[in-house]
Write a structure and sequence with these properties.
Blueprint lengths: L8 H8 L6 H25 L4 H8 L3 H8 L6 H10 L6 E3 L5 E3 L1
Antiparallel strand pairs: 1-2
Length: 104
C-alpha cells in the first residue's frame, strides 16, 4: 500500500496559488483580506440585528452597496470606518510587521 503524503496549508497554497511574493499570491492574499474585512462587517451588522437595508440607510447607501462591501468589494478604509461608526462600534487599525492591515 502506497504511503499517503500530507501537505501543510502553506505547501498547498504554494502549489495551487503561487509562492509568497508572486503577483498571483499577492492578489489572492489581498482578496482574502478584503473578504475577511467584509465578513467582519457582516457579523457586526448581524450582531446589531440590522438588515443590509437598515445599515445602508444609516450610512446613506443602497442595500446592494452593503452587499458588495460584505463580499469584499468596493472597500475603502473610509467606508469601513463609516460603517463601524454607524453601528456604534469602534474600529482600530493595526499594521503588523509584514505590512498587512487588520481591523480590530
Amino acid at each position: 500500500m502506497k504511503e499517503m503524503k500530507f501537505y501543510t496549508q502553506e505547501e498547498v497554497e504554494d502549489l495551487l496559488i503561487g509562492k509568497k511574493g508572486t503577483p498571483e499570491r499577492d492578489r489572492y492574499e489581498e482578496q482574502l483580506d478584503l473578504f475577511l474585512i467584509g465578513d467582519a462587517i457582516k457579523q457586526a451588522r448581524q450582531a446589531k440585528n440590522l438588515t443590509q437595508e437598515d445599515l445602508g440607510k444609516l450610512v446613506g447607501v443602497q442595500k446592494a452597496q452593503i452587499s458588495r462591501i460584505e463580499n469584499g468589494k468596493n472597500l475603502t478604509f473610509a467606508t469601513v470606518i463609516k460603517l463601524f461608526k454607524a453601528m456604534g462600534l469602534s474600529a482600530r487599525l493595526e499594521v503588523d510587521s509584514l505590512g498587512k492591515i487588520a481591523l480590530c
